Amino acid sequence: MPMRRDRDLARRRPRPNPVGLSLVKVLVIGPGGREHALIRALAADPYVTDLHCAPGNAGISRDVTTHQIDAQDTEAVVALARKLGSELVIVGPEAPLAAGVADALLAAQIPVFGPTQAAAQLEASKAFAKNVMAEAGVPTAMAMVATNTQEAAEALDSFGAPYVVKDDGLAAGKGVVVTSDRAEALAHAQTCFEAGGTVVIEEFLDGPEVSVFVICDGTHAVPLAPAQDFKRIFDNDEGPNTGGMGAYSPLPWLPAGFVDEVMDRVAYPTLRDMESRGTPFTGVLYCGLAITSRGIRVIEFNARFGDPETQAVLARLKTPLGGLLMAAAKGELDDDEQLHWRPETAVGVVMAAENYPESPIKGAPITGLDAAAALEDVSVLHAGTTTNAEGEIIVDGGRVLAVVGLGADLHSARAKAYAGVAAISWDGAQHRTDIALKAANGQINIAEGTH
Length: 451
Hints:
About 30% of the residues lie in helices and about 25% in strands. It is an alpha+beta fold and about 450 residues long.
């Protein structure tokens, strides 16, 4: 069987490795579903020969060796990378980036894929990101920064309903309230103020949302296939915001030339502005976009791969991921790089714990994982999981798993993903039933004149 795997990997090589690598030792930092997707993609890269994750989760530990360290402890991360002889460290979550893990690795002369603490402000501070976009001429929503209740009230009245109120700092995708209830909007702002923060209040953007991940080396950039995620906890986009309940890629309803426009109007101007500030951006520039009646608008930037979009996007990527990310880390990306993709569509459905997103109930044993993973064109990626004393895999977080199906079209990919979901169970498990449904039924419309 290993011989066959080697032949399969060899056939999948689309071209010589872009940075001339033969053996690459990679360490992935992070505990979640995004990191499991990265691990799976890197394991399929013939240039990656040694693969570790810290801290990982119960699913990741089935695939590679995991190390129990605090991902935000810069000294611990550097020490582990040195111990393993890592030639590339990939930082998954936003919190370690904001804590300066990439800076510490660079100081230790260890190649890292992920922005410095200063560059990660594009995500860590929405006010900073708005300033960059203003200077770079990047189209985005009009916004005001408020530091107290009176300023917040004035900004809300200036823009009118629907109201959009964002915590200025990191909030794991859950610091945003979009509501037509002025009192609710003001209450969210007050909660942020009481926690010692500020808020950004924006005009509401109409139109469908799109996520585009752009691999950057500080100067050059290569886009991945667009995806769409689903932030609300319940079907029909109802209930509170979450970190994301599912995603799909590619998006058949996007207009031709969409990605080129994102690169020309959003990604490259942002990279140029960051470089001019002396804080070049290396890593993933996650462009959260709205396709409005007035054209593309940036909703937000993130400084890392999005979760759960990564699970769907990387399920289709054929280009070796390790070589691509190493090229970015070393400043050797080629703007004209043509990535290779599987022709299938990917749909990922998140299974969440009981009482998520408020106070997830942990500890329930999970059954059916092997049965789901055995289904054709279905993969199960772990996020909030661990093992108990009996060796059972149990719930250990809010978003527990992402089940990804690959199919010839959205209907087929949805059917496979939900077949995998149906095979898995635990007490209180919840998931949305409508991931990618509107797109599959051709119900997503883009206003004329937006492109």
